Amino acid sequence: MAITLTESAAEHVKDYLGKRGSGIGLRLAVRTTGCSGMAYVLEFADEVAANDSVFEDRDVTVVVDQKSLVYLDGTELDFGKEGLNEGFKFKNPNVKDECGCGESFNV
After folding, report:
1. pLDDT tens for residues 52-82?
2. Which terminal Cβ of the chain has fewer Cβ within 10 Å, N or C?
3. Are 74 and 83 in contact, with CB atoms under 8 Å apart?
4. What does the alpha-carbon distance between residue 82 and residue 66 come to, in Å, rounded to a whole number?
5. 3-state helix, strand, coil in the chain (%, to 5)
6. Is 7 exposed, middle or buried (0-12, 13-18, 19+ CB in 10 A)?
7. What pLDDT score was predicted for residue 8?
8. How many other C-beta atoms lie within 10 A of the C-beta of residue 95?
């Protein structure tokens, strides 16, 4: 089981953690919502809970709870800019379908 980051995503997370001044890394999760069933949740991680899995990639710590890991295993997190828009992109091999707006997915 693994969660990975592209160089662009890792640099973006490290930059934000530096500006924030605290935190151990990035917390990645899923929640039930949207027209396709699930949506990604990204937050700063300040601690690791007993039921969390911890991954290290490109000097960034990624924390994932056990419930979410089932849906996120193998995901690569990227960060990109397209015109005036920028944001994280998820390359999740578990996704079977996504909604038209790109905000939610199902497995």
Report:
1. 999 999 999 999 999 999 999 999 999 998 8
2. N
3. no
4. 33
5. 20, 45, 35
6. exposed
7. 97
8. 15
Q: Name the burial class of residue 27, with classes exposed (0-12), middle (13-18) and buried (19+) by CB atoms within 10 angstroms of its CB.
A: buried
* Res 47: pLDDT: 95
Collect contacts of 37-44 with beta carbons under 8 A, ≥24 apart: 37/104, 37/105, 37/106, 38/71, 38/104, 38/105, 38/106, 38/107, 39/103, 39/104, 39/105, 40/88, 40/90, 42/88, 44/16, 44/17, 44/20
Q: How far is CA 61 from the centre of its chain?
A: 11
- Residue 102 token pair: 């790109």
